[in-house]
Amino acid sequence: MKSGLFFKFLYLGMSLSLISCQTTVTMDVVRDGVQLPYIKNTANECYYLDEFMPIPDNLVSGRSGKLRLRYYTYKSALYKDYKNKHIILSFYSTDEQCWSLFEEYYVTD
After folding, report:
1. In the record, which residues are listed under signal peptide (predicted)?
2. Cβ(74)–Cβ(33) under 8 Å?
3. Of 1, 75, 89, 92, which is least surrounded by CB within 10 A?
C-alpha cells in the first residue's frame, strides 16, 4: 500500500510539473521612457545638470580643448515632442558647473 501511495504522489508531482511547464508564458516588458526636462539649445543657457537630470543609461565625459563635454544617453526617453525614443544629449561647460546644451541626437532603428 505504501508503494502505491508513493507512485500516486510521484505521478501527481510529475503531472503538476508538466502542467506548470506548459502554462509558463514569457511576456515582453514595456518600459516607460524616463521623463527628461525641456532644455533649450540657445546661447547663455546655464544648467546645473547634477541637480535635476535623471540617471542616464550611459554617461560619457570628456574634453575638447578648454571645454568639458558630457554625453547623456537614454535608451527610452520622453523629451520635448518625442516619446520613448533613444536620445543622446550632449552638453559643454567651461567650469564643470554651468552646462549648456550643445546637440540633441535621436537614434532611430
Report:
1. 1-20
2. yes
3. 1
The closest alpha carbon to 87, from 46, 40, 33, 47, belongs to 33
Q: What is the pLDDT of residues 15-53, one digit of tens each?
A: 444 444 444 444 444 467 899 999 998 878 999 999 999
CB 49 within 8 A of CB 39: no
Residue with cell 505521478: 11
As a whole number of angstroms, the distance between CA 19 and CA 76 comes to: 37
Q: Alpha carbon 86 to chain centroid distance?
A: 9
SS3 39: coil
Of 63, 106, 103, 99, the closest CA to residue 83 belongs to 106
Cα distance between residue 70 and residue 101, in whole Å: 10
CB neighbours of residue 86 within 10 Å: 17
